[in-house]
Amino acid sequence: MRACLEVYRIILALAVSAGLSAGSRPGQGALNFDIMETAYGQMPKDTGLRAMEVSPDGRHLALAFSRDKKFHLVVDGKEVETALEGVNRLIWAPDGSRLAFDVNRGGSPGVLIGTLAPTGAWKTEEAGAGYQFIGDIVFDPSGRRLAFIGVKEKKNRLVVDGREGPPHDAVWYPKFSPDGTRVAYVARTGKLWTLVLDGREGSSAYDSIMEHHFSADGKHHAFIAQRERKMLVSLDGKDGKAYDAVNALAVRPDGRQVAFRASEGGANYLVFEGDGGRDLRDIDPGMIAWSNEAKPSFAYWAKSGDGYACVIDNQPQKKYPSVSGLIFSRDGRRLLYVAGGTTNHAVVADRGTDGLWTSRDWPEIPGYIYKMPLFSPDGKRVAWGLGDKGPIGVDGTALSDIKFDFYIGAPIFDRPDRLNVIVRRGDDFRLVEIVFK
């Protein structure tokens, strides 16, 4: 599997300036890490590339391409499947151990699952066959369960763990709960749409259903729906008030409340519904987020004068020309977002023991942020990719010694001390692992 392994020892003992360390926690002024690179083969030549996907943990690369009227599958530089037919999409399990893909055998579409063993061995099993068309394919968070939309006899069915659900005229947006025990999707019969949860169709029908979400504990479910040109949020089967428009839906981790942006009569509001009734505030929010805690923090960004500001637990932060994204660390003590300025840069807010939030700018390194920055699993580090050609940024420092032509996938932490990124140099694909000391 690993054709070539190159290990470099790089220690950065930087006399970090105040600007570079402004967003750091104590003890994070210097970076000390190893870089390991693994060759993942080359871009296939004289072929038609059909799909290319990096696993969610950032460690694996799958390519599907056509040659001699057949489709081939390459994983981490090794051809694992040959003479396939009609591969159109590649879907990785969250931990990168399994890969689902659609195939067309003799005009009969189906789904295969390939399992990648730690030794590099590859094993394929059939998840479903004999359909006219394959729609969305999704894994549950553990990667052990699989669902896909299969069309048979002009009817759509959601197939979960190999078992077909009831037929509908259309099926959209299949989703597992965070614990993987529940499944929800949107289904149409005739002209009306319903939410199907745990195999049971909801009693209410709508003109459309736009999006749906589980609570973090998996016990509650909410969605946005439209009926007679009005939009509403339904929480656990109970419809809320109708508005002219609704978006930016967020579900509290314990499912007791939902928050969203609602428009009514030309004005925009921040609305809470659920326990405690309905609370409408004269605020025009952008993105909305809750931390995943027993007593969660609540954050949003909104217009502030001639700019935008993030507000965390009712505490306004610094104003910027623009703001995007909101990501809480797993422990809920830090919040990460992107602020626009001369370029754009990451902003990290820390919650003190007194409950007060303090936002700090990571330095503006030339180039735009390629993907939304992310925390390490323990919340102690922040990483992002700058531009589509690098460099990689970690804790306010640009790792300029790591050279490549462009990213194949964004930098991803798969554990607190390791950052992975798959890149391309010329025709070569490389897995770059940055292991912090």
Structure description:
1% of the residues lie in helices and 58% in strands. The protein is mostly beta strands. The chain has a domain of 129 residues. The strands form ten sheets. Strands 1, 2, 39, 40, 41 and 42 form a six-stranded antiparallel β-sheet that branches. A four-stranded antiparallel β-sheet has the order 3-4-5-6, with no helix packed on it. β16 and β17 form a beta hairpin. The longest helix is centred in the first third of the chain and has 4 residues. The chain is globular and about 60 Å long.
- Which radius of gyration do the C-alpha atoms yield? 24 Å
Poorly predicted segments = 1-28
Number of helices: 1
Mean pLDDT across all residues, rounded?
A: 88
Profile the largest sheet. 6 strands, antiparallel
Instruction: Tally the beta strands.
Output: 42
Give the terminus-to-terminus CA distance: 26 Å
General form: globular
**Which structural class matches the secondary elements?**
mainly beta
Q: Assign a percent range to the helix content.
A: under 10%
Strand content: over 45%
